[in-house]
Design goal:
The protein is of the alpha/beta class. It is about 35% helix and about 20% strand. Helix 6 packs across helix 7. The model has no long low-confidence stretch (mean pLDDT about 95).
Length: about 375
């Protein structure tokens, strides 16, 4: 068919619940139009860049029922940025190369008319840069961290909050049984959205997020108020990027070649040390949820949101509206320019209605 058009779909960055629902949404919407084919690139841009390329045709059989499954059938990676591709030298050192022109050549060779990049803040910055270099690209916002601006929610976030809340509920009962302080660490990197929502949903006494540095002495006083003659309990939710006033984020330099982000995780244990050093005598235990928040089936809301995002992404391509990111605004699925979507990071605002509401419920942020 002379007028056949092809779309390349890829999932980059960390995995999260709902990725497969987007893939399915794109393919099912494309099937309603004549002359369209949808392919997936395995492990983000790595698939199309390989020789021979790793591509899969997203047929009806391949996408059947995948919207209920976690992860991504296209696999994903944090090390597939074509603008800064890691090349290992003979001496073991790594050189970062811009392979955009190679990517453009590959897309042309395989007759792809457009790319749909499903990913978070870093992935959409790549989308914008590639759009500026002449690639027809559309972005779909994916991240459990909810750290992309210009969209009220990203798919995957609500599922991560549900996992965290379910875990928090279990920790409340064990904290009460043993008169302990239970510290539950959640993901989020530089944004405290998961911790904040979990704290409100679970009824935490203390919520610590990156945007509001805490005073350890105030935390100790708050904990002491919950205890009487050695009896009582406290449940704390802490975001992996949280830190004390004047302190630093607990992070390690990456030890993987081509991985650009610092590795967060373990701040719950540091908080225990800080509390004990500040005179807290309560029995303390920690629970670090880690990647459990990324895994498993998406909840119903994320299945719906991700499916609608997939439909919208295809329609943007069909209408030639490149350089756009699908967005969820005011209960409507719409789109915004990629440059606006990545212009600023979506931090929790300390004066937001969510923070004020949490404080109204008696939750302490240690400030």
């Amino acid at each position: 068919m002379a007028d056949k058009k092809k779309i390349l779909v890829l999932t980059g960055g960390g995995d999260c619940p709902g990725l497969n629902a987007v893939i399915r949404g794109i393919a099912k919407r494309a099937k309603k139009e004549k002359g369209w084919e949808v392919y997936g690139s395995i492990e983000a841009f790595n698939g199309i860049m390989k020789d021979p390329p790793e591509l899969v045709k997203l047929t009806s059989k391949r996408i059947a029922g995948i919207h209920v499954k976690g992860g991504t059938i296209l696999k994903t990676t944090n090390k597939g940025n074509p603008l800064a591709f890691a090349r290992e030298n003979p001496d073991g050192s790594v050189t970062m190369e811009d392979r955009t022109e190679i990517l453009k050549k590959k897309l042309l060779e395989h007759n792809f008319d457009a790319v749909i990049n499903i990913g978070g803040d870093g992935s959409q910055k790549i989308s914008q840069a590639l759009f500026e270099k002449g690639i027809n690209i559309v972005g779909v916002p994916k991240t459990i961290d909810n750290d992309l601006s210009s969209t009220d929610l990203t798919f995957g976030f609500s599922s991560a909050v549900q996992v965290a809340t379910d875990s928090f509920d279990k920790l409340v009962t064990t904290a009460e049984s043993h008169h302990r302080v239970m510290i539950m660490e959640v993901m989020g990197r530089d944004a405290g959205w998961i911790a904040l929502h979990t704290a409100i949903a679970g009824g935490a006494e203390i919520c610590l997020i990156p945007e509001i540095p805490y005073d350890i002495k105030k935390l100790v006083k708050r904990i002491e108020k919950r205890y009487h003659k050695g009896r009582g309990f406290v449940n704390i939710v802490i975001s992996e990027g949280a830190h004390a006033k004047g302190g630093q984020v607990f992070a390690r330099e990456p030890d993987e070649k081509g991985y650009a982000h610092k590795r967060l995780g373990g701040v719950a244990y540091r908080l225990t040390e800080e509390l004990r050093a500040a005179g807290c005598t309560a029995d303390i235990r920690e629970a670090v949820l880690g990647h459990t928040q990324r895994g498993g089936s998406p909840i119903a809301f994320d299945r719906i949101l991700a499916s609608l995002f997939g439909v919208k992404a295809f329609e943007l391509v069909k209408d030639g509206k490149y350089g756009q990111m699908v967005s969820y605004k005011g209960s409507k699925v719409t789109s915004v320019p990629l440059k606006d979507a990545v212009k600023e990071y979506n931090f929790v605002k300390p004066d937001s209605f969510l923070v004020k509401g949490a404080k109204g419920l008696g939750i302490s942020f240690g400030d």
